[in-house]
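Hi team,

Filling in the usual template for the complex we talked about on Friday. All components are listed, including any nucleic acid strands or ligand strings, so the model treats them as one assembly.

SUBMITTER: L.P.
PURPOSE: interface mapping
COMPONENTS: two
RESIDUES: 626
SEQUENCES:
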Amino acid sequence: MPDTPASDTPAPDSPAPETGTDSSVPDAPAAGARVTGTGGEGLVRAVPAGLARFAALPTVGPLAALLLACLFFSLRTDRFLTGGNLSLVVQQVMEVGTLAIGQTAVILTAGIDLSNGAVMAFGTIVMTRLAVSGGMPPLLAILIGIAVCAAFGALNGTLVTMARLPAFIVTLGTLNIAFALTHIYSHDQTVTGLPKMMTALGQTFPFGNTDVTYGSVVMLAMFIVGWYILRHTAAGRHVYAVGDNGEAARLTGINTRRLLITVYTVAGAVYGVAGLLLVGRTGVGDPQAGVTDNLDSITAVVLGGISLFGGRGSIIGVLFGALIVGVIRNGLQLMGVASIYQVLITGILVILAVGVDQLARRRRA
Amino acid sequence: MNPSQASPVMEAHGLIKRYGHVTALDGADFELLPGEILAVIGDNGAGKSSLIKALSGALTPDAGRILLDGRPVHFHSPADARRAGIETVYQDLAVAPALDIASNLFLGREVRRKGVLGRVFRLLDAKRMQTESSAHMQDLKIGIGSMSQSVETLSGGQRQGVAVARGAAFARHVVIMDEPTAALGVKESGMVLDLIREVRDRGLPVILISHDIPAVFEIADRVHIQRLGRRVAVVEPGDVDMAEAVAIMTGAAPGNVPGPA
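RESULT (copied from the run log):
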């Protein structure tokens, strides 16, 4: 036990003024009634009013940035604010957005997953090759592909918890393993001639006066499910608690190892679904796919206001973060700006977002 | 309060714990009576934290018995102790700062909605947890306006208040407070000591481990003095003054409890 110098701190003879105010809080109100702050004024820090509260919501910053970017591009180009173009933006971010859902869960636990793009690519090669060369029913091939991705996640989670290795190192390792397996298993060949069912999520349906891909809807639905789990279930709160103060979470009886392994495994399965969306959009199994998707998904998570130190932020912000990257890329293309400037701007935004997070942390400390 | 008058809520006999050639617990005894604040004091290396860890399930003693309400118990983890109705409040503010007060109080014990929403969709009953948290905090006269504010917006004393309220809310038998004021200033320590009294007055016996001898003498009903891995004395603050207790603690004066045979 650490020895603290508290032994020479005398206890107050009389109750401290704060405590006095505190005890004067009437305990008459029935259980459930709220102390409105009048009684414990000395103890209650001024509670911010509605507006300040709204501004403090973790999704407000990313949403504001997204709307600003949209406003900017709709003023600079005529084509940006059309249904067809916006649908295209969503379609372009659907794999990275979906990968970012798994990445969000991992980062909320104060971990990181560098392997997700490579794992997704391996999943796509497994499902497409099994269906094309192996002649397996497409649905079964898809499920096996997703299961392989989940197994990679389980491996990551097991190494992080059981071997107590840093997530950065573990997932750097599995990134290379998945990358190598992708190329070995595919013989560096793109898998073509996929059964129709496998690319179904790349198909579109009419929506208003534009067409929307099913894959976009799948991504949005997964964000909503992710939000529900993280925000409204005990498991979700435990994810936040583990990233916020892992030791406190363990002491309250949460099985933090099991929780972490589950998070990495579910994230893996989500990467598998991202792979399916990728196959749907491109119509092939491409061993070169997803090489920079790990960093792109981290970019979306960071722009979305999730703290890289874990425990803070909302997954809805991550959707906005993914869309910010998509909107900037698309808008600059429409303006005829070379695509390398999109990378430049994303880099600046990432540093800004992390800077804001750090500032907020320092203010809280 | 005479130990023979009431049967102990929790007792331990002849606890032994060795780490290599270091003996942390050398046949330690322990006894907690109903409705009391029992302070455990001792110099560094006296084995008080090992004793507390054994009672809270954080370590398994090599030998000896622990009884709860007269029945032998075997804790292999803090979760075992918690299931038996023993809650521990730690010195280092074991709360999740980014989560709100209600989430912290119910962390690991969340309440779900009734019916299909809770059973199938695992939907939390946020409203009920907030209401109950508010009630628990008021029980202990902790005046905090909103249960939905994050714990990091609270002062150190209020944060410890949340931890104490969590312990008191869920403990059925015993609350163990491990240096609950060590991380706090004078004023805030006073507030937490008042909370500890509130917990006792609501009928839960409290084991208080503290370096803060004046505070111990202010609020404890009895003081267990640990030295060299054993209980060497149990004193009542009215009978013995601080200097005498410190003398027993450091070995300058003999204790009043015979060592194990």
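MY TAKE: Chain A touches chain B through 53 residues (CB under 8 Å). Residues 98 and 234 of chain A are 23 Å apart (CA to CA).

Thanks, L.
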